Amino acid sequence: MRLLKQLGTVFVITLVGSQAIAAVEGSWLLTLLLGALTAGLALAGYAWVVRRTERRAPTEVGRAGAGSATGRGVLLGVLMFGVVIACIALTGGYRVEGWGSATVALGLIGFTAATAVTEELAFRGVLFRVVEERAGTWGALALTAVLFGAMHLANPDATVWGAVAIAIEAGGMLGAAYAATRTLWLPIGLHAGWNFAAAGIFGTEVSGSDAPQGLLEGVMSGPVLLSGGAFGPEGSLFAVLAGAALTVVFLRLARRRGRIVPARRRADRTPVTTSV
């Protein structure tokens, strides 16, 4: 019941926000504002439902250190994508055909913020935490990574390989980032920075979706394994390797901080009964 209430709250806000953003397509200012509003409402809604269902303060979205952690995440996400796109370009899989639109890029800030916040709340804030209580960190990491990758199969240019790549490079990395920090701010920043770099800066596809191009008009070509093909750079082997490397770094950090939660044994899950 707790899982359904928390996911339901995030889902309703996500649905309303996405519909509102789609309705103002073409207006960069309204996209920016509605995206920011959706992200803010989703965070507030998540905090509210966690207080109601768990009777605790939602420290994973607490204000302490939120700005700095999110900023580090954004910077790391942009740098990570920059390294990946540089590797693809060096193998002839990416080129720039011209300049895009600065106003479209500004609108994409709101769009990517809404996407990053709502998806991280659902997958790491709700699913990862709930699964981890029973299956431990490793079980939660595996399940949420698979579900996160599978979700992207609904995108227009989705491929099975693309979904597998997303599961490894993003599902694993973002879950590990949460495990290492126990807040959602770093995963949110990473998610937003990566997506904005892809569409807002380098003008590429994002997870097989038809995202508008931002500052640059980018063109992908060459072998799908290296460039990602129509799915975008996230389907590239370079992205998989980069995401996997960061996953290992975050998991080692989580272990060093004592934040790896073991799976509960069957005996631990058996209700304790008393006789009268």
UniProtKB/TrEMBL annotation:
Keyword flag Secreted: no
Q: Which Pfam families match?
A: Rce1-like
* Molecular function, one GO term: endopeptidase activity
Q: Name one GO biological process term.
A: CAAX-box protein maturation
Q: Where are the transmembrane segments?
A: 32-50, 71-93, 99-123, 135-154, 160-179, 184-202, 235-254
Q: Where is the CAAX prenyl protease 2/Lysostaphin resistance protein A-like domain?
A: 105-196
Q: Which UniProt keywords apply?
A: Hydrolase, Membrane, Protease, Transmembrane, Transmembrane helix
Lineage, top-rank taxon, reads Bacteria
Protein name (database record) = CAAX amino terminal protease
Please give the organism: Cellulomonas cellasea DSM 20118
